[in-house]
Design a protein that fits this description.
mainly alpha, two-stranded antiparallel ribbon, elongated
Length: 239
């Protein structure tokens, strides 16, 4: 794609983004741009997965002394005992929290035409997709898929900020329902969810397979969802 042609796409990108027609009653988006955006956002669940793994399985102690000294004694299992100076590790998740808030914003902003204009990844992916033939797909199943992603992100936010969330819940209910001095969320829940999210986004990016869209299609078929969208109700399970 030439430089002049690339710059020529800019007005159209800002006007339509990845939508076929932003003013239409039934919205369609370019699946090529959606896959590019999933690839851009793939770094977030990967980063959070590594962070969670370190938080759950990493060492809880930091050696602060200059030397580790042999005590010349052993325990009952014949393990050699050493003397060290160490402190219990305190983890700061302010960076992870900001990353998660950004990811939550990205999941929610792509659901609507107006909010999509504030999403950096929607703008970037829409521009990058202009050099390829568009593949138009209905927005409704994507909204459902991104809602699943937003719920996963919300759980991780609670895991990293349990005291803040507990304070909100206790204030709303005017009763101490959740503890504010310990993490009440089981560690395996966010750890599993973040890797599931990583797998879903990898399939979207590399294989073009939207798991959330297929779940949406299944729920429509069994009658649990009543979306009046012919394209949504006839999604192919082979693509």
């Amino acid at each position: 794609m030439s430089l002049n042609k690339s710059f020529g796409y800019i007005p159209e990108v800002f006007k339509k983004l990845w939508f076929l027609d932003p003013d239409a009653d039934t919205l369609y988006i370019n699946d090529i741009a959606v896959r590019i955006r999933a690839g851009l956002l793939l770094i977030i669940p990967l980063y959070m997965g590594l962070t969670l793994y370190e938080a759950v399985y990493g060492s809880h102690w930091i050696v602060t002394g200059n030397a580790i000294r042999d005590t010349f004694t052993t325990d009952f299992d014949d393990h050699i005992l050493y003397s060290v100076e160490a402190i219990r590790r305190t983890l700061d998740y302010s960076t992870q929290t900001m990353v998660l808030w950004f990811a939550l914003f990205e999941m929610l902003s792509g659901m609507f035409v107006f909010t999509s204009r504030f999403s950096p990844t929607v703008l970037i992916s829409s521009f990058l997709a202009k050099g390829h033939a568009p593949v138009w797909k209905p927005l409704t199943p994507k909204r459902f898929a991104w809602s699943i992603g937003a719920s996963f992100i919300s759980v991780c936010l609670i895991f990293f900020n349990p005291d803040v969330f507990a304070g909100w819940v206790n204030w709303v209910l005017a009763h101490d329902v959740l503890p504010t001095t310990r993490n009440y969320l089981p560690k395996w829940i966010p750890l599993v969810l973040v890797w599931v999210c990583l797998g879903f986004m990898w399939m979207e990016t590399v294989l073009g397979f939207c798991v959330g869209c297929k779940v949406h299609s299944l729920l429509v078929k069994v009658g649990l969802l009543k979306e009046e969208c012919e394209a949504c109700n006839n999604l192919s399970w082979n693509s």
